From TrEMBL:
Pfam families: Keratin (PF02422)
Family of this protein: Belongs to the avian keratin family.
Quaternary structure note: The avian keratins (F-ker, S-ker, C-ker and B-ker) are a complex mixture of very similar polypeptides.
Molecular function terms, GO-annotated: structural constituent of cytoskeleton
Highest taxon in the source lineage: Eukaryota
Protein name per Swiss-Prot or TrEMBL: Keratin
InterPro entries: Keratin
Record's keyword annotation contains Transferase: no
Amino acid sequence: MSCSSLCVPSCGVAAPAPLADTTNEPCVRQCPDSTVVIQPPASVVTFPGPILSSFPQHSVVGSAGA
């Protein structure tokens, strides 16, 4: 699953020609923590989950015709 599918998509822009829509929004997702039990003696260690981030750049340029 890409990070871009986890972010809210930008709103489309409806306008007469020419039409351009650009987004450059950061997307950050933190995964759950992991827990490990180490024996002996019994110990519990919690590792923080990874933080995934990306900065997708999507551009759409075109023209609206009749």
